[in-house]
Structures are given as C-alpha cells and as structure tokens.
## 1
Amino acid sequence: MVWLTAVLAVVGGSTGQSPATRRSERLALADVTVIDGTGAPPRPHRTVLVSDSRIVAIHDARTWRPPEQTRVIHSRGRYLIPGLWDMHVHLSMGEASLLPVFLAQGVTAVRDLGGDFSAVRAWQQEIAAGTRIGPRIYTAGRILESPRFLEILARLASALEPPFRDQLHAIRAERIPVGDADQAEQAVRELALQGVACIKFRSNTTAEIFSAIVAAANRVRLPVAGHSPQGISLSEAATAGQKSFEHVFMSPEEATLPLAEVDRFADALKRAQGFLVPTLVTFHATRLMAAELMDQRLKALSQTNEACGRAVPARLADAWRLHRLLDQFEQPQDWVAVYQGAVERLRRLHRAGVQFLAGTDFGARFVCPGSGLHEELERLVAEIGLTPGEALQAATRNAAQFFGEEQRSGTIEVGKLADMVLLETNPLDDIRNTRRIAAVIAAGVYYDRSALQRLLTRSHP
Ligand SMILES: [Zn+2]
C-alpha cells in the first residue's frame, strides 16, 4: 500500500489519475511519423489510436477527426517507434529502484537472463498488475550451470574476504547445477513449472548435456538462450535449436574461430532463425576500460554516476566491486585483439544476413539501466555495420520473435500491445536519436517528458 501511494504520486503527476484509470485511457498520437519496426519505410502523417493497452487503429492524420473521450497528443514532426527491449539483463543484481529508470529511457521490456528468481518474479507480477512501474519482464529464472564451474566459484569464494565471499556464495546458490542429461531434463521441467519465459545456460560440459537441455526446452516450448556451448560447434548448436547466442566470439578461443566455421554458423543460424546477442557495451566496460579508470569509477559510485545519471544503488555497486576483484584470478589477455577478432566475425555474420538482438548484460560492471541499451544500439551500427533500421529491429521486432510473440508485440501494428517511444528526431538518420525521447507509452500508459524525468530522478521503494 505504501508503494501504491508512491506510484500514484509519480504517475498521477499532472493529471492526478490513478494508473488504473490511465490504463484504460483512449489515446491518439496525432500526425506522427511511424517507424513500425517491420522494416517498412517510415510513414508520415499517421494517427495511432491506443485503447485498453493495445494499438487499435492507425489512420491517415489528414482525414482523421478525434473521437469523443480521446486524449490527443499532437505529435507532428515527431517519430514513433516500438518500445525498446533490452534482451540481456540480470535485474536482481540491481534493485527495484532501477526498474523505472529502464522505462524512462524507452525500454518497455527486458529479457532477464537469470539471478534471484523470487525477487524478479515479484517485480514482474507487480509491473504486470500496474502496482509497480517498470519494463515488462521476461525471465529465465535461474541459470543452468556446470557443477565444475560452481566448484570454481566455491574455491574463489573461499579465497575472498567477507562480504565478497558471501556475495559469491549467493550467486552460486542462485544457479542450478546440471551435471548430466537427467539433471538437465529435471531442471528445465522445474523452471517451466515455475513459469519462466526461456531457458538460460551459461556453462555446459558435454554435447550430451547441451542436447538434453535443448530437447527438454523444446518439449515445454521454451526458447533457449546460452553462451557458446562446450563439446559442440556453434553451427551444430544453432541447428539443434539454441535460439540465442550471448557474448559470442568475445573470448580468446572464439575470437580466432576459423572463418569457414563462422560461415557454417551463419548458414545454420539463418536456417534456424536464431539470434546473436553480442552485448558490446559490457565488453567495452569490462575488458576494454583501463584498470585505473575502473578503479576511479568504482570509488565514485556512491555519488551520482555520470554514465548512469544517478547514484548506483549499494547492491549493484557491491556486485561491480566483486567483479573487479575477480579480475585478479584471470589470465592476462590482449582484449583489444580479442575484440577485433570478435567484431570481424560479427560483421561477417551480419553481412551474411544473420539477425541480432540488442542486449546489455545489465548487472555487469558499469552497464547502466536504459542508457546502456542506447549505447548498444549505437555500437551495433558503428561497430558491426547494422543499419539504424536493423538496430531498431534488434531491440523490437526480433525480440518479440525470440519469444514467438511477434503476433502480439514488437511492432507498431493494429492489434499489438501499445509499447511505443515517441522521439524528437528520426532514428533512421542517426541511431543516437533513440535517446531524444519525448514520451513513452508502456502497455497503453502515457508518460510525458516530465513524468519520465520524475521516474529517472526519484527513488522508489
Ligand atoms: Zn549475462
């Protein structure tokens, strides 16, 4: 109840309406240029009607007359894009207070790839019920992990002092050890019963375990997201049905993968309609940032962090400090060379016509909620060679396709969920224009610029 009052104070703002009334509000975005996410050219002079959290009509603005009881948002000169999805986050490494920050920056949905499931599920339900403000959450629940990796974590934990030791043990406890095919089957079934939206594996030890995870996920119709699997080639994994490949090529071994194998992977991934999730921002923040700068920024976390535009909550700051501490256990690498190899291969896959998803790996150090996604979009264009339109699709239509939800969300079409971002300038001219947000519509609820500003700056319980 305390929370609900806070929501009313924030959302009600200028109009004094409760979220429930706003939810059913009829809204018209009048005379806007629609970039619908399907790949169609921009359509100027459209009026998009929203009712009951859906897009119910798209009219020619020049002949349209506002119906009764419709709030008209005059949007001439502005651009309407589908709501953005961050397809790789670990929400529970942050705090509930960061959820509105995603929304304030146009991120209306996230794919949570594992962490503290009970916390994430509670937020998911509260957001769906309208009692908490944040992006729609699709979660993998807990991460499947090889027992060998969990043993390494235990050993690392014992080498650390508290509180880092306890933090690492907590991370271990959130993961599901999968040491054979039976455990894989059981873990997937358990997660499916808990209502997860996809399965995430981080490490597997054998081809047999990988196959068991994918087969079990196929049976319960859940898409599989994972790091590059062990014991099986990337092209075999794509053919077997792994739907998204996270941080692919970002390791010393993968960054030198022979180009013939990269091409086989491209063919297999296109046939299987799978996706690449390079999470370029996290590589920049984790691997390419100078050590002195990292330490300097870690010291400044309690003050307003320039990149995040607000102070980093203690829980997230502790996670970032732990990550930095773990650097000492790693072999030194020439990360610039790794990155060059990875980028060369990702560019090749893009030229071959493979589809991408935009994800940040929020939770990882120095990756900020919301703004991280805009940076990822910019890097997908500048570094991998996506067109601005393709980058937008990597954060909209493709995201819905990953979940098999393209009939329901991901584009601006009649009948789709009304998740949209109103921009001041054309993102197809320059992808950095996705940052110039005039308003956000999340499940049909309209947040004007001052409401977004309040979401950005106020802290929430
Ligand atoms: Zn991750």
## 2
Amino acid sequence: MKPAPFEYHRPTTVAEATDLLAEHGDAELLAGNQSLGIVMANRLATPDHLIDLNTVDDLAFVEEREESVAIGAMTRHRTIERSDLLTEKLPMLPEAAEQIAGPSVRNRGTLGGSIGEADPAGNYPAALVALDATLEIVSADEEREVPVSDYFIAYMFTDLAEDELIAAADIPTDPFPPERTGMAFLELKPAAQTWPTVSAATAVRVDDPDADEPVVEEARLALANAADVPLRVEDAEAAVEGESLSEDALEAVAEAATAAADPEDEMHADSEFKVEVAGEYARRSLAASYDRATNIETDFDAPTDH
Ligand SMILES: Cc1cc2nc3c(=O)[nH]c(=O)nc-3n(C[C@H](O)[C@H](O)[C@H](O)COP(=O)(O)OP(=O)(O)OC[C@H]3O[C@@H](n4cnc5c(N)ncnc54)[C@H](O)[C@@H]3O)c2cc1C
C-alpha cells in the first residue's frame, strides 16, 4: 500500500519547523523515516502534513557542555556509534547504537526519531533513562526541559504535545568520571537486524578501580521491552551500591529486575520468558559494567543456569 496523500514541508530552521507544527494540527515530523514510512505505508498514520527535519542542520550535533553531553535530535545512529566524545564519556550510547538493526537503518535512523516513536523496546529510551537524561523540547511559543523518566508515560504515549518537537537530549556526565566508570548495553535478539527481546542498560561508578575489592559507589539499571515504558530498576541499583560486587548482590539484582518486569507476550517471546531474560541480562550487564569500571576481571557476567 502507498501512504495517503499529504503536503510535504521542508523547513531549514527549528523556528520554521515549530511554526509549521503550530499551523498544522495534523502533522507528523519526518526524521530518518525508518519507522514512520512503514506506519504511513500501512496507513496506520495518515497525516495531512509531513514536516521533514532532514534539512534542519541545527538539530544534528554531539556537543560537550560543562557537565554533560548534548545530542541533537537529528543525530544519526551511525554518528552516535562512531562518536569519540561519546565513546569516552558515555560509552553506553555508542554500544546501544551499534546494536540497532543493520547498517541501512543506522545510517538514516535518528535519536529524535527513536525518542519520538517511544517504543519501550528502543535502545536509546532505556539508555537515556539509565543515564538520567533531560529532553529539550520546543514549540513555537516555549522551550522546556523534561526529565526523560517523566517523558515516557505509557505504551508509545509521551509527554510531547502536538505542536512540539524534541530538539536534543542532554546527558549528565559528572556522575560518571570515565576513569572510575564502566557502562554496558546488553541485549538478547531473536535474529540479527531485528528488535531485541529484552535489553539492559547499566552504569557503575567505583571508589577506586585499583583496589583489591573496588566498592560500587553508584549503579544504574534500565531495561528495554520489559514493560510498557523503559524501566528503571532502582531496587537493583541499591542492591549493589556501597559494597564490592558479589555473587549475592548480583542475585539480588536479578531478583529485583525480575520483580519489576511486567512485559507483554510477543510472537517470539512470551512474557514469562521475557521476565527471565530481564533478570539474567540485568545481572550480566551490571557485572560487565563493574568489570569495565575496575582493573579486575570477574567472571560474574558469564551466563548462569537460570
Ligand atoms: C528492521 C528494523 C529494526 C530496528 N531495530 C531497532 C532496534 O533494535 N533498536 C532500536 O532502538 N530501534 C530499532 N529500529 C528503529 C530505528 O531505530 C528507527 O530509526 C527509529 O525508531 C526511528 O527513527 P527515525 O529517525 O527513523 O524516525 P522516523 O521514522 O522518521 O520517525 C519516527 C517517529 O518519531 C517522530 N519524530 C521524529 N523526529 C522527532 C523529533 N525531533 N521530535 C519529536 N518527534 C519526532 C516522527 O514524527 C514519527 O512519529 C529498527 C527499525 C527497523 C526498520
């Protein structure tokens, strides 16, 4: 099927794009077109107006700020995957980007499209929730900042109004100095180039990476596709904080993730299986983050018999 007819707009500035949104109530934003095209071709979306952001150059950037890194909405997955700044400061994001689908999706797909789509299985939504990012949202009348955990409200339902667009995500770097931090994005996929069954995004900061038993000062864990929104699991974080990593603490992580997960059945994975994967991948991903934060190598991230 072909998309229903629409009027095509090509703004070159954010102000032009938001003016068009204000003018046309029934408009969709076009970013990498890796999801919207399919939805429109199946006539699940039939907007009268399409506002193409590909000519708004000001939305494509990765920029270091005082205590954060900001990523513009039109930044492609490929750019995030290859960014030296992100690899140094927030390595969870390049690791999340490199696992999205295949090269053609990564060459076109964007951060803003992924957040705009708000699929709870998406890689960036979980990563940004784990990293406590703030979204910069603009309309013709207003600019506002929204903590990403408040943005995702229910299944593919967000805090974004019809006349607003996502301009950028701002991600704090001060909690995670690279020399004492490890991050991981671990996902189980039924096949290459498809969406993951469940993913775990984790970060760990230790007190002293050279100590015999480095203590976890701060941990973060968010799961993708384990609930109707990206799921931060604070009980799991608390289970490893304040002590050196142990098998017992990781078992508590798995239990907390399992208890928090509330996924839907899917064709390739029923909810029971997804809950089990959530626990196991939370455990493995946190263990991998700890190994990367320290100069010791545990074998905690090896698969268990679960
Ligand atoms: C085969 C395949 C496998 C995939 N696997 C994965 C995967 O494993 N993990 C993963 O995370 N993703 C996956 N994706 C999705 C991919 O990451 C898409 O690129 C992404 O979800 C949508 O980004 P886009 O730039 O293409 O947005 P588009 O398709 O252009 O737009 C998607 C939605 O976001 C809205 N939007 C776009 N930009 C903005 C903005 N700035 N502000 C507000 N709303 C906006 C649009 O209006 C639209 O509703 C996969 C896609 C395909 C086709």
## 3
Amino acid sequence: MAGWLDRIRMLNSPLHMLALAAAVKWFGGARARERFGLLTVRPMYAYGLFRAADLARWCGLRRVTAVEFGVATGAGLLAMVEAAGHVRRDTGVEVRVVGFDTAAGLPPPTDHRDHPELWSEGDFAMVHHDELRARLAGRAELVIGDIADTVGPFRESLAPEAPLGFVSMDVDLYSSTVAALRVFEAADPSIYLPAVSVYLDDVAMFTANRWCGELAAIEEFNTAHELRKFDVDRTLPGRRPWPHLNWYARMRVLHVLDHPRRRRPEARRGLALDEDQRRLREYGLM
Ligand SMILES: C[S@@+](CC[C@H](N)C(=O)[O-])C[C@H]1O[C@@H](n2cnc3c(N)ncnc32)[C@H](O)[C@@H]1O
C-alpha cells in the first residue's frame, strides 16, 4: 500500500506546494483533492474511479462498476466506497462497488510464481466479515469464496449499462491473479469501458519480476488475447502536482481493442483543434 509513504514524500516538497495542498484540502473540490492525493487513504482508487466515471460519461453512460480483488480486513474496500461517493457527487456517475475475498486469507502458494518467499496460506484472513458488511452499509457487495469460483458468475452479472471501469488487483499470488483476470475474458466487449483503469498492488517489491506474480499474469494475458491488452498508464504523472508517487508505477490500463467505441470513428462533423483539446480534457483522455 502506497498511502503513508507517499504522504511522507509529499512533505519533501517546496513550501509553496505544501501551502497549495493545504488550501486545496480546506477549500478544493473533489477533483482537486484527488489530484493532490487528499480525497481518500487510497489515492489510486480515487484516481481510477474518476477515470472510470469520465470515460463512462464519454460513452454516454451514468453507471459504472469497480472491483477490488482481495479485500482482507476491508480498509481498501471502505476507501473505494468513500471515493465512489465523491465521484458520484462530482460527476453524477453511480459506481457499483464489488469486493472479492476467500475470507480465510491466501490460498496455498503453488510454485515460485506465487512468491512463496513472501506469502503463505492463510495470510491476511478477513476474520470478521459480518462486521465489514455492516460497515459497508450496502454501499458495496462482498463476494466471499475463491475467485476461481466466483469471478465467472460476477462477469455474467456485468452489463453494458454499468460496465467494468476500475479494478484493484490485490490478491498477491500469481495463481489468484490469473483467476481474477478472467473477469476480462467476456465475449461481449461492451460490458467493459473501452479502457479500464487497473491498479496492481504487488509489482514493486524487490523480488517482483515478469516471470512471477501479477506481472507474469498480465504478460500471459497479453500474449493470450489479441484484442485485450494491458499497458502502463501513459497519462501518469502527466501534470499532476506530485510527480513521484509510488502508486503511479502500479497503474495499468486494460485496452479493450474490440470495444465498439474503438472499432470505428464517431459519425460527426470535423473537429477543430481547440474543441479536440477541450474534449480530451473533459473526459480525462489525456
Ligand atoms: C493483501 S490482502 C488485500 C488487502 C486489501 N486490498 C486492502 O487494501 O486492505 C490480499 C487478500 O487477497 C485474498 N485472496 C488471495 N487469493 C484469493 C483467491 N483466490 N480468492 C479470493 N481471495 C483471495 C486473501 O484472502 C487476502 O485477504
């Protein structure tokens, strides 16, 4: 989790930036607080949800779905519902939030790809999932069980009216990540946004590499799917106020290249350059 480390890093910034951050904290709107990392304890969730809501508006939609794979005690899922509330008030887009966990902690690591040097069976057990459900107060669905069993029925529940737009992948193991990535294998591309923001939690440890864990799982996904591809998020850090936060390098975009929105140009009159810039900014496409 990048949160508190990034906050310490922010303190290393010039005084005028700290003063600006303080002003944004007290007087800024949700978008400004998101850019300054001040909206929730999981800034990457606020970022991903704003991306999803903006792309949903671009597609003429008012609802979108966001998922956390790996919930543990629920700190991340609670941050996601909090961020979803801010996003709804700012954009008018409703976010369906869904969390997945065994409740019993990690399944057993199978081989070196599951990073057995770091994790063991039963790590991060949820313990009180009824208590978490009570705290979520209906603002998120909690799907208990092995993702290998639960991801299929969930994928079936997705619909073009509320497509999948943001995913946090935090199941630690390669084998669990492979199972979770099946969420992106639906035949109908319109149950996704044309580009889905994806946060990968476990790609920045010293033992992380492209042959193990989440990185191996997304490389294999890319090889296996001609028209669904993970790439880095090329808009980060862009012009964001803090250029060096840890979570930027953990963001990916799942490009749904078979999405109808990416298969043919819109029928409309020619765009002027300034209109194009305004549109790209309005829908967060740059
Ligand atoms: C590091 S914790 C998640 C932390 C949480 N995202 C947060 O930010 O507070 C990893 C979780 O993934 C869950 N998990 C791993 N593999 C799973 C699987 N195959 N099915 C369901 N849950 C799984 C574990 O139970 C564990 O609670």
## 4
Amino acid sequence: MTTPLLKVTGLRKRFGGLVAVDNVSFSVGERAIVSVIGPNGAGKTTFFNLITGIYEPDEGEVLLSGRSITGLRPDQIAGRGLARTFQNIRLFAGMTVLENVVVARHARLKSGYWGALLQTARYHDEMRQSIARGMELLRFVGLSAKANELAGNLPYGEQRRLEIARALATEPVLLLLDEPSAGMNPQETEVAKRLIQSIRQDFGISVVLIEHDMRLVMSVSDSITVLDYGRKLTEGSPQHVRQHPDVVAAYLGKGVAAGTAATTTAGSALR
Ligand SMILES: Nc1ncnc2c1ncn2[C@@H]1O[C@H](COP(=O)(O)OP(=O)(O)OP(=O)(O)O)[C@@H](O)[C@H]1O
Ligand SMILES: [Mg+2]
C-alpha cells in the first residue's frame, strides 16, 4: 500500500470541558480533493489548526508524506509543504495584490536579511523571479489585472482567491482551505470550484476544504468527512454521505426524511 500524503490518527483537542476534536482519524491521498463538513462549532477549523501546528494536539499523530509533523511549529509545518487559508481572511490590506504574493513566497528565498539590506546580486535575482512567479500565480487565480491594487480594496471573493495565490506561493504539497466560498455569490462560487479543480490539475497537489456550500462540496470532492461535536460522524463518497441518515439528522434535525432533505436543502441548511 502506498503511504498517504496526509495521515491523521486519533487526534484530540480539549478546551477546558469541551472536547473540540475527539479521536479523529483521517487520510488524504495524492492528487485528492477531500472535504470536511459539519455544523457550526463541529471542530472543523480546530482540526485544521491541529494539523497546521497552531494548536498542539492533546493526543494523536499527524504524518505528512510518512513523516511526523505532530507538535512542530506552524512555520516548520509550512516548510514541509503544508499551506492553508483562513476562515477569516488574513491579507496585508495596505500592500498591493502582487506584494502580498511575493511576501508569501519570501519564506522560500535564500538571500535573507543581509542580502536584502546589501542589495546583493542574488537578492535582485530572487526578487525578479519572485515577481515573475507572483504574476503567474495571479494569472492562475484570475487576478493579474489587479496586481497593483491594494489588497484591502478587492471585493471579498477576490480576496479569497488572493489568499489561495499566497498559499500556492509557498509551493505546498497539500493545501487546506477553510471555507473558500464563504461570502461568495453563486457565480463567484462557480469560479472558486473551477479554481480548486485546477489546483489539483495544474499543480498536481491535494486539497482539503472545509465548506458549507453543499453543491460545491458534492461536485468537487473525491471523499467527504463529516464532523459533529468534534467526532467523525461518517466519511466516504459524496453519494454515501448525501444518503447517510446521521448526516441529515446532524444538519437538519432529527425526524427529517433522509432522501429528500440532503439534496434539496443542504446548501442553506448548514448556515
Ligand atoms: N481557542 C479556543 N478556546 C476555546 N474554545 C475553542 C477555541 N477554538 C475553538 N473553540 C471551540 O471549539 C469548538 C469547535 O470550534 P471550531 O471553530 O473548530 O468549529 P467549526 O467547525 O470550524 O465551526 P464553524 O463552521 O462555525 O467555523 C467550538 O465550540 C468553539 O467554540
Ligand atoms: Mg470554522
């Protein structure tokens, strides 16, 4: 059997009396698109925070390409090839769109502080490459025409796409997206969906997304993991998850007829 790209075993995190993530195991293969869904407060973002080193798990292990990243710092984990975006957008609002991407790539540069200060040839070379690569990434997310605008002036949907460009600038093997379509209208969500598919296609990497938009989740995911009260309720293909009675109950309240509910109302039912 091949080693999965990401393998999470028995992950647990407690905040006081609350077990936010409770014994969750999860794995992601190469070139996969996997979704994590569940009601508000189910533990989805905490799960990402544990994988990316923002919180240290109380129990459990996280392996990236077969090597443990459990307990490493976020920058060390990023250096291993794991990138993410945040549910609450984190951009440098006062910097241009292009500068935002170039700065994100900066972690990979070799010339460092003295190179920048002394304006060495290597520094200039790396800077030129970073700007060229930044422009390529902006073209990829459809923002090259806005390269010189201030990031803070972009509409919400474009800020989310800029965050994805920033994450891709770190050259990840795995990208975690926390609610990439939040705040988007249906047209923007369609653009986001195609973008997620082309990340796999063009970069050959895997994507894990936390999402509330069920139409998006059902159409892009190879596999879906459902969290509820920190626990894994079920996982499997979109077909399996859509029909799972516990999923319908967790989202829509018990007593709702399974078959009809998940397909007709799931998109809005999660908010
Ligand atoms: N740093 C923290 N300290 C205490 N409690 C926390 C902390 N972070 C998260 N929680 C709690 O853990 C639970 C899970 O939160 P989390 O943000 O992971 O949920 P979520 O599934 O991402 O929800 P949403 O869909 O609303 O984003 C919630 O009850 C939340 O209040
Ligand atoms: Mg969240």
